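Milestone M4 deliverable, item 7.
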Amino acid sequence: MRRTVLLGGAALGVAVIVALGGAYVYEFSGLRTAPKPLGLSSAPAAASPSIAASASSAGAGGLTGSWTVAQGSEAGYRVSEVFAGQTSSHEAVARTSSVSGALTVQEGSAGLQATSIRFTAQLGSLQSVDQVAGRDVSQRDRIVSETLSVFQYPTATFQTRGVDLPAALASGQTVTLTVPGELTIRGVTRSVTVTVQARLSGGEVQAAGSTSFAMGDFGISPPRIPITTVDPHVTLEFALVLARG
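Output delivered:
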Protein backbone atom coordinates (compact mmCIF):
# COMPACT_ATOMS: atom_id res chain seq x y z
CA MET A 1 0.00 0.00 0.00
CA ARG A 2 2.79 2.37 0.96
CA ARG A 3 4.62 1.54 -2.26
CA THR A 4 1.48 2.28 -4.31
CA VAL A 5 1.13 5.65 -2.61
CA LEU A 6 4.79 6.45 -3.25
CA LEU A 7 4.51 5.48 -6.92
CA GLY A 8 1.35 7.56 -7.28
CA GLY A 9 3.06 10.51 -5.65
CA ALA A 10 6.07 10.13 -7.92
CA ALA A 11 3.86 10.01 -11.02
CA LEU A 12 2.04 13.13 -9.86
CA GLY A 13 5.35 14.87 -9.27
CA VAL A 14 6.53 14.03 -12.79
CA ALA A 15 3.27 15.34 -14.24
CA VAL A 16 3.66 18.61 -12.31
CA ILE A 17 7.26 18.99 -13.48
CA VAL A 18 6.24 18.40 -17.11
CA ALA A 19 3.41 20.92 -16.79
CA LEU A 20 5.68 23.49 -15.19
CA GLY A 21 8.26 22.85 -17.88
CA GLY A 22 5.68 23.62 -20.55
CA ALA A 23 4.67 26.77 -18.71
CA TYR A 24 8.33 27.76 -18.48
CA VAL A 25 8.76 27.41 -22.24
CA TYR A 26 5.70 29.59 -22.77
CA GLU A 27 6.43 32.26 -20.21
CA PHE A 28 10.20 32.53 -20.01
CA SER A 29 11.87 31.09 -23.11
CA GLY A 30 11.76 34.33 -25.09
CA LEU A 31 10.71 32.38 -28.20
CA ARG A 32 8.02 34.85 -29.14
CA THR A 33 7.43 36.56 -32.47
CA ALA A 34 4.89 39.05 -33.83
CA PRO A 35 4.36 40.24 -37.42
CA LYS A 36 5.28 43.76 -38.43
CA PRO A 37 2.54 46.43 -38.47
CA LEU A 38 0.29 46.38 -41.52
CA GLY A 39 1.50 48.68 -44.29
CA LEU A 40 1.48 49.30 -48.02
CA SER A 41 2.67 46.40 -50.15
CA SER A 42 6.20 46.79 -51.42
CA ALA A 43 5.11 46.10 -54.99
CA PRO A 44 1.80 46.59 -56.85
CA ALA A 45 -0.51 43.61 -56.46
CA ALA A 46 -1.52 41.66 -59.55
CA ALA A 47 -4.67 43.31 -60.82
CA SER A 48 -7.84 41.32 -61.38
CA PRO A 49 -9.53 41.72 -64.81
CA SER A 50 -12.10 44.13 -63.37
CA ILE A 51 -9.42 46.23 -61.73
CA ALA A 52 -7.24 46.17 -64.81
CA ALA A 53 -10.16 47.34 -66.90
CA SER A 54 -10.66 50.29 -64.60
CA ALA A 55 -7.01 51.31 -64.68
CA SER A 56 -7.40 53.32 -67.88
CA SER A 57 -10.45 54.96 -66.37
CA ALA A 58 -8.39 55.93 -63.33
CA GLY A 59 -5.78 57.46 -65.58
CA ALA A 60 -8.28 59.42 -67.68
CA GLY A 61 -10.72 60.46 -65.03
CA GLY A 62 -8.30 60.69 -62.13
CA LEU A 63 -9.41 59.40 -58.77
CA THR A 64 -12.96 60.70 -58.87
CA GLY A 65 -15.71 58.17 -58.33
CA SER A 66 -16.67 55.47 -55.85
CA TRP A 67 -14.15 53.08 -54.30
CA THR A 68 -14.94 49.95 -52.31
CA VAL A 69 -12.90 47.57 -50.16
CA ALA A 70 -11.56 44.69 -52.26
CA GLN A 71 -9.97 41.31 -51.62
CA GLY A 72 -6.60 41.48 -49.88
CA SER A 73 -7.72 43.96 -47.21
CA GLU A 74 -6.96 43.32 -43.54
CA ALA A 75 -7.59 44.96 -40.18
CA GLY A 76 -6.64 44.02 -36.65
CA TYR A 77 -5.11 45.00 -33.36
CA ARG A 78 -1.85 44.76 -31.47
CA VAL A 79 -1.45 45.05 -27.72
CA SER A 80 1.41 44.42 -25.32
CA GLU A 81 1.42 41.51 -22.87
CA VAL A 82 3.88 40.97 -20.05
CA PHE A 83 4.25 37.43 -18.76
CA ALA A 84 4.71 36.78 -15.04
CA GLY A 85 8.32 37.18 -13.97
CA GLN A 86 9.33 38.96 -17.18
CA THR A 87 10.33 42.57 -17.81
CA SER A 88 10.15 42.58 -21.61
CA SER A 89 6.76 42.67 -23.29
CA HIS A 90 5.31 40.58 -26.09
CA GLU A 91 3.03 41.95 -28.81
CA ALA A 92 -0.23 40.07 -29.18
CA VAL A 93 -1.48 40.56 -32.74
CA ALA A 94 -4.77 39.48 -34.31
CA ARG A 95 -6.17 40.16 -37.76
CA THR A 96 -9.23 39.63 -39.93
CA SER A 97 -9.81 39.83 -43.67
CA SER A 98 -13.55 40.36 -43.08
CA VAL A 99 -13.43 44.07 -43.85
CA SER A 100 -15.93 46.07 -45.88
CA GLY A 101 -16.57 49.69 -46.71
CA ALA A 102 -16.41 52.43 -49.29
CA LEU A 103 -15.64 56.06 -50.01
CA THR A 104 -16.25 58.57 -52.78
CA VAL A 105 -13.65 60.85 -54.34
CA GLN A 106 -14.89 64.11 -55.82
CA GLU A 107 -13.59 67.47 -56.93
CA GLY A 108 -13.83 70.09 -54.20
CA SER A 109 -13.10 73.81 -54.11
CA ALA A 110 -9.54 73.10 -52.94
CA GLY A 111 -8.94 69.99 -55.05
CA LEU A 112 -9.75 66.31 -54.60
CA GLN A 113 -11.65 65.21 -51.51
CA ALA A 114 -12.60 61.76 -50.19
CA THR A 115 -16.10 61.80 -48.72
CA SER A 116 -18.64 59.40 -47.20
CA ILE A 117 -15.83 57.29 -45.73
CA ARG A 118 -17.01 54.26 -43.79
CA PHE A 119 -15.15 51.01 -43.03
CA THR A 120 -16.27 48.04 -40.93
CA ALA A 121 -14.37 45.04 -39.54
CA GLN A 122 -15.99 41.85 -38.25
CA LEU A 123 -14.56 41.31 -34.76
CA GLY A 124 -15.75 37.73 -34.48
CA SER A 125 -13.31 36.64 -37.19
CA LEU A 126 -10.20 38.10 -35.53
CA GLN A 127 -7.46 35.47 -35.31
CA SER A 128 -4.15 35.73 -33.46
CA VAL A 129 -1.14 35.75 -35.80
CA ASP A 130 1.71 36.13 -33.30
CA GLN A 131 3.59 33.10 -31.99
CA VAL A 132 4.68 31.98 -28.53
CA ALA A 133 6.69 28.78 -28.14
CA GLY A 134 4.69 26.02 -26.51
CA ARG A 135 1.46 27.99 -26.55
CA ASP A 136 -1.69 27.90 -28.66
CA VAL A 137 -2.30 31.65 -28.96
CA SER A 138 -5.67 31.02 -30.62
CA GLN A 139 -7.01 30.46 -27.09
CA ARG A 140 -6.62 34.21 -26.61
CA ASP A 141 -9.18 34.87 -29.34
CA ARG A 142 -12.02 33.43 -27.27
CA ILE A 143 -11.09 35.68 -24.35
CA VAL A 144 -10.90 38.74 -26.60
CA SER A 145 -14.26 37.86 -28.17
CA GLU A 146 -15.86 37.69 -24.72
CA THR A 147 -14.18 40.92 -23.63
CA LEU A 148 -15.53 42.76 -26.68
CA SER A 149 -19.01 41.23 -26.28
CA VAL A 150 -18.81 40.21 -29.94
CA PHE A 151 -22.14 38.37 -29.85
CA GLN A 152 -23.87 41.67 -29.04
CA TYR A 153 -21.46 44.04 -30.85
CA PRO A 154 -20.01 42.09 -33.79
CA THR A 155 -18.31 44.97 -35.63
CA ALA A 156 -15.94 47.88 -35.26
CA THR A 157 -16.66 50.84 -37.54
CA PHE A 158 -14.69 53.93 -38.56
CA GLN A 159 -16.36 56.74 -40.44
CA THR A 160 -15.73 60.35 -41.35
CA ARG A 161 -17.37 62.92 -43.60
CA GLY A 162 -14.33 63.77 -45.65
CA VAL A 163 -10.62 64.44 -46.01
CA ASP A 164 -8.64 66.44 -48.57
CA LEU A 165 -6.40 64.38 -50.88
CA PRO A 166 -3.01 65.65 -52.12
CA ALA A 167 -2.74 65.94 -55.91
CA ALA A 168 0.37 63.73 -55.72
CA LEU A 169 -1.85 60.72 -54.96
CA ALA A 170 -3.25 60.70 -58.51
CA SER A 171 0.29 60.44 -59.93
CA GLY A 172 1.12 57.26 -58.01
CA GLN A 173 3.13 58.84 -55.22
CA THR A 174 2.79 57.65 -51.62
CA VAL A 175 1.09 60.29 -49.50
CA THR A 176 0.53 60.57 -45.76
CA LEU A 177 -2.86 61.69 -44.46
CA THR A 178 -4.15 62.63 -41.02
CA VAL A 179 -7.79 61.60 -40.92
CA PRO A 180 -10.06 62.59 -38.01
CA GLY A 181 -13.20 60.54 -37.60
CA GLU A 182 -15.38 58.47 -35.31
CA LEU A 183 -14.59 54.94 -34.19
CA THR A 184 -17.33 52.71 -32.76
CA ILE A 185 -16.46 49.63 -30.72
CA ARG A 186 -18.71 47.69 -28.35
CA GLY A 187 -21.50 50.21 -28.91
CA VAL A 188 -19.36 53.19 -27.86
CA THR A 189 -18.36 55.93 -30.31
CA ARG A 190 -15.29 58.11 -29.77
CA SER A 191 -13.43 60.67 -31.88
CA VAL A 192 -10.04 59.42 -33.07
CA THR A 193 -7.33 60.49 -35.48
CA VAL A 194 -6.00 57.93 -37.94
CA THR A 195 -2.63 58.28 -39.64
CA VAL A 196 -2.82 56.84 -43.16
CA GLN A 197 -0.41 56.21 -46.01
CA ALA A 198 -2.05 55.88 -49.43
CA ARG A 199 -0.91 55.11 -52.96
CA LEU A 200 -2.57 54.62 -56.35
CA SER A 201 -1.12 51.51 -57.93
CA GLY A 202 -2.29 49.46 -60.90
CA GLY A 203 -5.81 50.87 -60.83
CA GLU A 204 -6.16 50.21 -57.09
CA VAL A 205 -5.76 52.51 -54.12
CA GLN A 206 -3.78 51.04 -51.26
CA ALA A 207 -4.31 52.60 -47.84
CA ALA A 208 -2.64 51.53 -44.60
CA GLY A 209 -2.64 53.12 -41.19
CA SER A 210 -3.35 52.92 -37.50
CA THR A 211 -4.74 54.63 -34.44
CA SER A 212 -4.12 54.00 -30.74
CA PHE A 213 -6.32 54.50 -27.70
CA ALA A 214 -7.01 53.28 -24.18
CA MET A 215 -9.41 50.35 -23.88
CA GLY A 216 -11.27 52.20 -21.15
CA ASP A 217 -12.27 54.88 -23.65
CA PHE A 218 -14.67 52.31 -25.10
CA GLY A 219 -15.74 50.78 -21.80
CA ILE A 220 -13.41 47.81 -22.27
CA SER A 221 -11.42 46.27 -19.43
CA PRO A 222 -8.11 44.56 -20.31
CA PRO A 223 -8.67 40.80 -20.71
CA ARG A 224 -7.96 38.73 -17.63
CA ILE A 225 -5.41 36.07 -18.59
CA PRO A 226 -3.67 33.87 -15.98
CA ILE A 227 -0.03 34.86 -15.30
CA THR A 228 -0.23 37.54 -18.00
CA THR A 229 -0.74 41.30 -17.64
CA VAL A 230 -2.35 43.02 -20.64
CA ASP A 231 -1.52 46.66 -21.36
CA PRO A 232 -4.72 48.79 -21.39
CA HIS A 233 -3.61 50.58 -24.57
CA VAL A 234 -4.31 49.06 -27.97
CA THR A 235 -3.39 49.91 -31.55
CA LEU A 236 -5.85 49.28 -34.36
CA GLU A 237 -4.20 48.84 -37.76
CA PHE A 238 -5.38 48.19 -41.28
CA ALA A 239 -4.22 47.67 -44.86
CA LEU A 240 -6.95 48.26 -47.39
CA VAL A 241 -7.16 47.57 -51.10
CA LEU A 242 -9.72 49.83 -52.73
CA ALA A 243 -11.17 49.13 -56.18
CA ARG A 244 -13.52 51.27 -58.21
CA GLY A 245 -17.11 50.57 -57.25
